[in-house]
Design goal:
The structure holds 3 protein chains of 3 kinds. Chain B has 15 helices and 11 strands. Chain B is α/β, with parallel strands linked by helices. In chain C, helix 12 crosses helix 14. Classes of the chains: A mainly alpha, B alpha/beta, C alpha+beta. The structure holds magnesium ion and zinc ion.
């Protein structure tokens, strides 16, 4: 699979990333090299093989619906880069399509 | 160095009886760290005062005959992606440079509960992505055996701390070999426990289905001790196993005579480094000399390991690292709107390798490519696991033997410009993470004879076969003239 | 509608009535101070991991069963990846490939008859936090109390053809989920949120048109309005030869219009993948059966039972069972006060009116069944009249208390001691021998009327005429 600039750009948008100026080509080359390498998976016959997405050996044990004390609010907010009173503060939200 | 002449097992025993002062034992390591670490760079944070205070408290308790715990008074270095309340957890990244968690990882809590003392936090490849610790945004870590070389990675700081005698024990984390490979490169014992054996709660996620906290020590017995302490079901980690934890110490000295050990031919390929091969062949002979039966076996899907590993690990990483958005913690680059703030925060906060993996992981999950890459990799993973099950369950092997790393410690910059070459450092270790099983790296014959660079022998066991793997490691260590 | 037909499917998010959040032990509670119900897990702190709330799964199963769905034997969680400041992990844990419940059918009342809608799926997920926009600060404030609150998302097939069908569905769904204790379904507090998707086509056509999704509809009334507006908008586009684009629209209630969201919609790719932190969940059939067996009575069954056991009319029963709260309260009162006819009229006329006037609900009122029974007993004994019943009821709703005591305090002094009335009666009779004579000579009506008037006057207008009459007649009879 040959990757092109548009593909990398759309992936960067999804990942909310940007690349340092002048390094686009280097990243592209590295990605191409890795994608070429993983092409080898294409030769496997995977008919009837169930994908292994979780490595846990037993099914989930569920949690009882019992309340525990939440964290102290100051602990929760202590690492915030910006806050307003008891809130985390962020700049304006322009893009509404991201919300759930 | 006084402390490091003693095993941690012995030290804990002496301290709890009051025959050794925890303050002296801990100071020994702290002094070593303070005098030597400027030249090594193992630690990012040394928690000197708290460690000494905890040691003093231990001594007070011992004087009253109420000192307890399997790790009584024993200091432990902790990789910086494992949360310790009140200490920074940078994960080697600029984006978490000032982040201080207010909670302990489950493994850390268990260490404290057994009387262990957190000594400090150790350097690592950013978010555990790397095999040399060169990807840390916070500084270089040198291999104590040869400071011109890397300690391996990603848990390079923890390995260097133990190898330099600055800590008797250390926690690392494994995603594709990040404990075993640096253990091998630094001449240490490193254990990767079975997936689900140790709670991941408080381990900052890189690839959740592969991550597992692992342990470093100078000898197998100490590794069995700390691995036993941190293992067991934790309700905070749904993937942790409810299976009871056997006593790792009890069968440690048992003989390996009659054990069946497989040697996967794919792990000693044509073109394997001659020193690595020689070391490995001799290691196999040693175990045969102890009465173990060996036989060649095959893990036919080995060829797909690195590909499957990088697709799965990066896919999960792209999602796990989405939380670094400059809103609740970590770095923030101010901007006039949220989207720009996010993008510039992440662009400045993440290093090159992390970005590369986020891009790759985002790509393999994106619509149109998901099945071709991600689903394929998950299916390949199932086949890779089946290879191991065939060896252990169908063919009845007790363990498999392989070299831990295809190379000894390499020089700084040697592989830094070629990500793929760096990825291939994991070629003998990553399959174990994909299969979710356990493996131990134990020091083997050094490259180029005695005094040469360390190399490791890898002992791979089936799920929850830590006791067997440790026992084989211990027998080998003893035969090699290690601590009797 | 001018040869065009609307085709609507509905996605409803409902907050589950659990004590704790979906994946952590923080309280699931509305209205707490900002960021006070938050822990490392629901704030997405590095190293934290989710663990599934068993009660949330149970309520999800109950919702699925009540909607006629099949419950999955094995269900699993997935990550939905997107960035938003109120989404702490950068992904939402939801269910994509293997939802908890699927392929259901839900029958609900519509215009005197019934309609049935297909339920595509019902799955569990976590809520996001809340952004409070602040224009002055040129930014937003993030509160994570709601982050991680358990939700069930219920998706219907595109089975609706009119706005009325959609609101009838929503009303019935809300009633059902409240009844079986799955959710409070409080739209004002956001515990029920609905997102209809709409396409239109020429009547008789089989193929579906391009659909749009409408967000931000916050009441049943606005759902209907939004659907009508969107129908008109799409019709105008198609009739002028244009094409409807698949997009998400925001309902602007003030402007009564749908408007496109700001931002790049085509950049949306959620990259769903299996949540590696949570092993798949096995749901034993026995668990499903237990949930079914312990499920509270559903609205239809309750209606039927009230008709059967109290002889209520269909219409009355429907009104009394409109909410589980109302029906529960009614039945508690009925256990204390036997005249169910009178009780039901009190509920349907006076109580509804009073609650409405006081702008409150049963839960928000101070009323209790004993007070209602006491109130109606006073009326039955003739101590107070109908208007006074309503007056006292209003106070009971507002402030609670004992109905007899309220009546006394308010000077509805019909409530008097038999003894007190008795002595007045005796005195008046003694003072009015001519009336007693009249009574003896069989001019009783006139005599009684006159005496009662005097008795009531003597008691300051506070005597109960019926009680007075009874006592008077007894007194008079004893003198004949
Ligand atoms: Mg949803
Ligand atoms: Zn929480």
């Amino acid at each position: 699979m040959k990757i092109d600039d548009a593909l990398i750009e759309s992936v960067l948008r999804l990942a909310r990333l940007d690349l340092p100026r002048g390094e686009f080509e280097k990243y592209k080359a590295h990605l191409q090299q890795i994608l070429d390498y993983v092409e080898v998976l294409g030769e496997l016959d995977l008919e009837g093989v169930a994908p292994m997405s979780c490595a846990a050996s037993s099914p989930a044990v569920l949690r009882a619906d019992a309340e525990a004390e939440s964290a102290a609010r100051e602990d929760v907010l202590a690492n915030a880069p910006a806050r307003a009173g008891a809130f985390f503060k962020v700049p304006r939200i322009l893009d509404q399509t991201e919300g759930s | 160095m006084s402390g490091s002449l003693l095993t941690a097992v012995k030290a804990a025993e002496l301290i709890s009886r009051g025959d050794l002062k925890a303050v002296d034992y801990v100071s020994g390591f702290l002094d070593e760290a303070l005098s030597r670490d400027s030249g090594i760079g193992a630690f990012l944070t040394i928690d000197r005062e708290a460690a000494l205070e905890a040691a003093a408290e231990t001594d007070r308790a011992a004087a009253q005959g109420r000192a307890r715990g399997r790790l009584c008074g024993v200091p432990v270095a902790v990789k910086d992606n494992i949360c310790c309340r009140g200490l920074p957890a940078t994960c080697g990244s600029r984006i978490l440079k000032d982040f201080v968690p207010f909670y302990d990882a489950c493994a850390v809590r268990r260490i404290r509960d057994e009387g262990g003392i957190v000594l400090g936090k150790t350097n690592m490849d950013e978010f555990a992505m790397g095999s040399s610790t060169e990807n840390s945004a916070l500084g270089v870590t040198r291999n104590p055996r040869d400071p011109s070389r890397v300690p391996g990675g990603s848990s390079g700081g923890s390995a260097a701390a133990v190898a330099a005698g600055m800590a008797p024990l250390a926690l690392g984390s494994e995603t594709g070999g990040s404990v075993r490979q640096p253990a091998s490169l630094c001449g240490l014992v490193g254990l990767k426990p079975t997936y689900g054996r140790v709670s991941r709660y408080g381990l900052v996620a890189y690839a959740s289905s592969l991550d597992q906290i692992g342990t470093f020590s100078a000898c197998v017995e100490d590794n069995a001790l700390i691995a036993g302490v941190i293992s067991g079901r934790d309700p905070m980690d749904s993937t942790s196993s409810p299976a009871p934890v056997p006593d790792y110490m009890s069968g440690l000295e048992d003989s390996v005579a009659g054990m069946r050990l497989g040697i996967p031919r794919e792990y000693v390929p044509e073109g394997l480094d001659a020193e690595v091969r020689r070391s490995f062949d001799r290691a196999v002979e040693v175990l045969e000399g102890l009465g173990a039966e060996t036989a060649e076996v095959s893990l036919p899907h080995t060829k797909y390991v690195i590909s499957a590993y990088y697709v799965i690990a990066t896919a999960e990483a792209s999602s796990n690292l989405a939380r670094y958005d400059g809103v609740r913690y970590g770095l923030r680059r101010e901007a006039s709107d949220v989207a720009s703030m996010l993008t510039s925060t992440r662009m400045d906060g993440f290093g090159a390798e992390v970005k590369r993996r986020i891009i790759l992981g985002t790509f393999v999950l994106s619509s149109g490519y998901y099945d071709a890459y991600y689903t394929r990799a998950l299916k390949a993973r199932a086949l890779i696991r089946r290879d191991f099950e065939d060896c252990f369950d169908r063919d009845g092997f007790d363990a498999l033997l392989t070299p831990t790393s295809p190379v000894a410690a390499f020089r700084f910059g040697e592989k830094a410009d070629d990500p793929l070459e760096m990825y291939l450092c994991d070629v003998f270790t990553a399959a174990v993470n994909l299969a979710g099983i356990t493996a131990l790296s134990v020091p083997s014959f050094p490259a180029g004879g005695s005094g040469g660079l360390p190399l490791g022998l890898q002992v791979i066991g089936g799920a929850f076969r830590e006791p067997e793997v440790l026992r084989i490691g211990r027998a080998f260590e003893k035969a090699m003239g290690g601590r009797a | 509608m001018s040869g065009w037909e609307m085709v609507v499917g509905v996605e409803v998010h409902v907050q589950l009535k659990t004590r704790t959040k979906m994946f952590c032990a923080c309280a699931n509670r509305f209205g707490a101070p900002p960021n006070s119900l938050v822990c490392p897990i629901c704030s997405g702190m590095p190293g934290s991991l989710p663990s599934v709330n068993m009660r949330a799964v149970e309520l999800g199963i109950a919702a699925g069963l009540a909607l006629g769905c099949a419950i999955a034997e094995k269900t699993s969680f997935d990550r939905k990846n997107y960035f938003y400041p109120d989404m702490p992990k950068g992904y939402q844990i939801t269910q994509y490939d293997r939802p908890l419940a699927s392929r259901g059918r839900f029958r609900f009342p519509l215009e005197g008859g019934f309609m049935e809608a297909g339920i595509t799926r019902a799955h569990l997920e976590e809520d996001s936090g809340k952004n409070v926009h602040d224009a002055a600060a040129r930014g937003s404030f993030v509160d994570l109390n709601r982050a991680g609150v358990p939700l069930v998302e219920i998706v219907t097939d595109p089975d609706f053809r009119t706005p009325g069908q959609v609101s009838a569905y929503l009303a019935a769904l809300k009633q059902l989920l409240q009844y079986i204790g799955v959710s409070d379904c409080n739209m004002e507090q956001g515990s029920l949120r609905c997102e209809p998707n709409v396409s239109i086509r020429r009547a008789g056509e089989k193929a579906l048109g391009t659909k749009t999704e409408i967000k931000n509809v916050n009441s049943f009334k606005s759902v209907e309005k939004a659907l009508r507006c969107e129908f008109e908008r799409q019709r105008r586009i198609l009739e002028s030869g244009g094409r409807v684009i698949q997009e998400t629209l925001l309902w602007n209630d003030a402007e009564s219009a749908t408007e496109p969201m700001r931002g790049k919609e085509e950049a949306r790719d959620y990259r769903y993948f299996p949540e590696p932190d949570l092993p798949p969940l096995e749901i034993p059939g026995e668990w499903v059966e237990r949930t079914l067996a312990s499920m509270p009575e559903r609205p239809e069954a309750r209606r039927a039972r009230l008709i059967r056991s109290f002889g209520l009319k269909e219409y009355d029963a429907a009104l009394l069972t409109a909410s589980r709260e109302f029906a529960d309260f009614f039945e508690s009162c009925a256990a204390l006060f036997g005249n169910v006819r009178r009780l039901s009229s009190l509920f349907m006329v006076d109580l509804l009116a009073v609650l409405d006037e006081e702008k409150t609900s049963l839960a928000g009122s101070r009323l209790n069944p004993a007070a209602v029974a006491g109130l109606l007993s006073l009326e039955e004994e003739g101590e107070i009249n109908k208007n006074q019943v309503k007056e006292i009821l209003a106070e009971l709703v507002r402030a609670g208390g004992d109905p007899a005591e309220i009546a006394r305090r308010r000077g509805m002094a019909q409530v008097r001691d038999q003894g007190e009335i008795g002595s007045v009666v005796a005195r008046i009779v003694a003072e009015n021998p001519e009336s007693v004579a009249d009574y003896r000579e069989f001019r009783e009506n006139m005599a009684v009327g006159l005496l009662i008037g005097r008795i009531i006057r003597a008691m300051g207008g506070g005597a109960n005429p019926q009680a007075a009459r009874a006592l008077l007649e007894k007194e008079l009879k004893s003198r004949t």
